[in-house]
Amino acid sequence: MKHTQLGEFEELVLLIIGALRDNAYSISIKLELKEHTGRNPSIGALHSALNRLEKKGFVESYEGGATSERGGRRKRFYTITAYGRKALDQSFELRSMFYHRLPKLGWSSE
Amino acid sequence: MSDPRVKYRPPHWPDKLLGWFCHEEHVEILRGDLYELYQERRQNGAKFWADLRFCLEVLDLFRPFALKKKRHQETNDIAMLKNYIKITRRTFTRQKVYSLLNVSGLSIGLACFILIFLYVRDELSYDRFHPGAERIYRVIEHFESDGVGEHSASLPFPAGPTLVHDFPRQVEHVVRLFNFQSPTLALANKDADKAFNESRVFFADSTFFDVFDFKLEAGDKATALDEPNTILITRSMARKYFNGEDPIGKFLEFQGTQNLLVTGVLEDAPLNAHFQFDFIVSFSTLKHWYNGDYPRSWYWNPCWTYVVLEENTTKEALEAQLPAFVQKYFHEFIRDEVTLELQPLVDIHLHSTLDYEIQANSDVKNIYIFGAVALFVLVIAAINFINLSTARANKRAKEVGVRKSLGSRKSQLITQFVFESVLLTFLAVLIAVGLVISVLPEFNQLTGRSLDLDVLLDPRFLTGFVILTLMVGLMSGFYPAFVLSSFKTTLVLKNAHLKTSGLSFRRVLVILQFTISIVLIIGTIVAIEQLKYLQNKNLGFDQENILMVPAIRSTMGDHYETFKTKALQSTSIKSITAVEEVVGAKHQVGNYQFEGMERSKPIPRFFVLHDFTKTMDVELIAGRDYDRSVVTDDSLALVVNETLVKSMGWGSAEEAVNKRFYFRNRLEGKIIGVVRDYNFVSKHNPIGPLVLPLNTRPRAFDLFIKYLAVKVDGNNLQAAVNDLKNAWHTVLPNRPFDYFFLDDRLNESYLGEQKMSKVTIIFSGLAILVACLGLFGLATFSVEQRTKEIGVRKVLGITTPQVLILLSKEFMPLVFAAFILAVPLSYILLREWLSTFAYRVGIEAIPFMVAGLITFLVCMITVAYNAWKASKINPIDTLKHE
Fold first, then answer.
1. Does residue B477 sit in the same domain as residue B562?
2. Cβ–Cβ of A71/B32 closer than 8 Å?
């Protein structure tokens, strides 16, 4: 993945952003992470990753959706870009390619 | 910043912190996230944990992406620094007058500060050079009844050794110092034919060096004072008596009779020791003078006694046992009136004002006054600096505008101006140090010190100085820096009229400055008046043309009458008496019991010989003086003063005559005369009761009669001194003749005040000078600001006096306000200061008026000079440009 430079945590976040579609913002991403991986990153760590993703061009953001519990402050929603999608695809392909090359022996011994 | 729109408010401070460090771009989103999480946590859990996690998460946001960013990389800091230096230099040379005023004012202020700092530091260093100085105490004796008596710095002979003996666990060492209570003692090197009366001779126990850490250049500290008839002399004395030959093993003759072997050479006494010595004689030498033993009396208290306490004990622990000690040893008839106390060695110089001090001490009050003056001068100088720099701000507004439009940030501008003022301060410091170096000899002479500049190289002092420089630089640079950097770029460049921001602040500073100056002037005037009052007020006896001749421990007692007859043959010598101490400076204390008293009480006592009232011109208001024809006057008669009569409750002086007095409850004699009160000690103290007994015993000159007092003809002083000397040498051929004038010696009692008034005069003068420099700068500036206005006014026909009025309107109200502030302030301070004197001048209106007038005039002259300059400008020059 040399050319995309997608870190493990970043990849996970990128996937979640894609999966959450229109409702991908920090808190919802945090909840997804907590629910499915047990990780509970701090707001700082999460935003830091989101920022990196955006800088690298994997995601785009827009602001909106102010709610009362936020004191009327907007959220920053993220959407995956085509480049981001491509990076995910590449990463998936790479993984599945190697995955398929795993010797089947392991399986037969089960 | 807590948001009223949310249900639960997160903790205030972390929230605020976030806003402070977080980049504007992110702050809304991040804060929103944190709030959202916080609401949820509060709904599901305790406030404490939610708060804690909120805090932690805020702290966690100290991440590069979230922090406020500088707009560009700082690669030009060094280059800018060079630029700042260049600009500083250019501004300095372009505005020479301001810059010089600015820097010189500050240097004067700093120089004053350094000088006084050196002085105060020296004062505070007294006696601290002994290792373990904080464990050394002087034992002092209070001996009084109903407020009358003595507070003695010295103890009876047996007290010291008994203390070590009785409290071996608490007292490690003890040393006694003794000098026969004699103002001078005679020493001679017969071989070299050198004989002098020395005033700094002390007898000291062999434990001297266990207590004090004075340096012995030659000889052995452990044994030097062990043997009787041995003496240590200082290096200077070795030169004086032995012409630089090695004095060890040689002899000095003491009082013309006793040979003392020199066993060591001392380094000269450090000037910051509370007692100054030239000779230390072994204590056992004294046995020769007291029939082979030390005096055993617990009444006579001539020994200054110092103890070193063991490390594990305290002053209080030992003091708690002293009342029992007093009861055990002191004579029955004084026991209840005596209290012993431990006085820390390091407190002696600044805090001790006891009777029989070895030498006069300083007063911590003066340190406070000096310190305050130093601080005042520095504050005034710093205010100048601030004022002139802010005033100059407008001049440099264009520069600021250009800098801003080229991308200078506010912080850079502040850095620039702070840097500039620190640089100027540093320059001022250098000049100040130069000034200090050049005036230090004079300052030393003035204060009677030998302050050293070595301390300036001490790393601690250097660091202190760097800090001081930075502080003054920052203080005086910060305000102008903020004013300058807050100018609006466009306005500045459009040359719009700038609001002279900081004017009101500057006004406050000018008022403060002049308040301080006026307080200093008033204080100085009153201090001088007080000093004059102390020195001039009629003392109740004649102090003019009185020669005092030390005669203690001479054989004068055997020859007194012969001497007197011989001396009085001279036409220039009018009258002779002999006295116990210097008249008007000192006295001793004796126990007396008068009619109507249950038991004896300590009362100030002053032994005299015949003709005391005549010689000293003390008025006798009842009864008679001692009469040579009444032989029993010596023991059966007493002359007392008015206050004693009053304190006994006797109706009048006449009534007091023939009142009886007792000794150990046995009838002794009667009061024969009462003298008018005279100041028998300095006017720091009120007049107390006094007994003036006659002591004609030949041995009186051993202890109770110390001086001859001779009234001479003021017009023939030289002849009088010569005649007296001849008379002296006919009866005492071997004893050097010494004398001093009484009025000179009495003036020495006020040396502290004299020194202080000199120093305050000088420093308040400088303070006013510095304040005027500042005012001058401001006035000059104000004229420059208003050149156009004055130009227009000139075209319309304004006269020079009118210009003066125009300018005065700006400054005079400030000076007036300062005056209004200074009056009550100085009144309070002076009342406080004067209350420490028994005799004091009243605080009158005149000093206040004089101070106001001086300040007003000086300001007027300053402003007038500028007005005159302004009115000379040709309006064409100022009006043709626009």
1. no
2. yes
Q: Which of B18, B21, B29, B34 to mutate to test the interface with A (most CBs of A within 10 A)?
A: B29
Same-domain pairing of B562 and B509: no
Please report whether residue B74 resides in a domain. Answer: no
Q: Which residues, in sequence order, are CB contacts of B766 under 8 Å at separation 6+?
A: B108, B109, B112, B377
- Same domain as B579, residue B451: no
Q: Chain B within 8 Å of A51 (Cβ-Cβ)?
A: yes
Give the minimum alpha-carbon distance from A92 to chain B in angstroms, rounded to a whole number: 29
CA–CA dist B532, B193 (Å, integer): 44
| Block residue for tokens 């040399």 | A2
ipTM of the complex in this document:
0.88
> Which chain A positions have a beta carbon within 8 Å of B28's beta carbon?
63, 73-74
Q: For the structural domain made of A8-102, what CATH number should be given?
A: 1.10.10.10
**Backbone φ/ψ region at B776: left (φ over 0), alpha (ψ -120 to 50), beta:** alpha
**B77-86 long-range CB contacts below 8 Å, 24 or more apart?**
B80/B412, B80/B416, B81/B419, B84/B415, B84/B416, B84/B419, B84/B420, B85/B423
Residues B580, B632: one domain? Answer: yes
Q: Is residue B862 part of a domain?
A: yes
The whole domain housing B335 covers 133-351
Domain end, chosen from B317, B351, B385, is at B351
B185 shares its domain with B242: yes
What distance in Å separates the CA atoms of residue B364 and residue B305, rounded to the nearest whole number? 23
Segment A57-76 shows an average pLDDT of 87
Pair (B777, B711) in one structural domain: no
Alpha-carbon gap: B47 to the closest alpha carbon of chain A (Å) = 16
State whether B584 and B687 are in the same domain.
Answer: yes
- d(Cα B522, Cα B357) in Å, to the nearest integer? 33
Convert the pLDDT of each residue in B719-769 to its tens digit.
999 999 999 999 988 788 889 999 888 887 777 778 777 877 888 788 878
Chain B contact for A64 (CB, 8 A cutoff)? no
What is the helix (H) or strand (E) element at residue B233, kind and residue range? Answer: strand B230-234
Does some domain include residue B44? Answer: yes
pTM of the prediction?
0.72
